[in-house]
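Troubleshooting log. The previous structure file for this entry was overwritten by mistake, so regenerating from the original sequence record. Sequence copied from the archived sheet and checked twice against the printout by T.R.
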Amino acid sequence: MKKFRNPSYGFFAFMAIVGGVVLLLADLDKFQDFPRGDTPLRLLGYAGLTVFGVLATRITVEVGPQGVRVVNLTGTRRVRWADITGIALETSLVLTLADGSRVKCVAVQPTNFENASGREGYAHRVVQELDVMRARA
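Regenerated output below.
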C-alpha cells in the first residue's frame, strides 16, 4: 500500500499539537478559578488546537491493488478502482466516481508556487501515478 500526503502537513500538525499543549501549560495557573471568566473558552480553544493537530496527522491518501482509501480531517472513505471514472487536480485531488459524486482528497494539494509558476510539482506527480495505477487495475 502506497501513501500520499502533503509533505508540510506533518510539520503543521506537530506545531498545532505542541502549540496547544504549551499554551495550556502557560495558562495553567489561570485554571484555578475554572468556571469564571474566559477560562472555559481558553480551555476549549487549546483543546481544539490540539485535537486539530492530532486529526491533521491522519490526513492521507492510501493506494493499493483494491483501490483508494481517502482519509480527510472528518472521515475516511474507501473507493474501488472500478468506481473511479476520473482523477483531477483542482484545489485538491478530486476523484470522480461512476455515480457522479466526487471525493476530495485534501492530502494532495498543489502549492501556490505550482499554481503561480505553472510548473508541475508533487501533486501533479501524484495524479499521474494514480492515473497509471487506475489503468492497471
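Residues 20 and 45 are 8 Å apart (CA to CA). Archived copy saved in two places this time.
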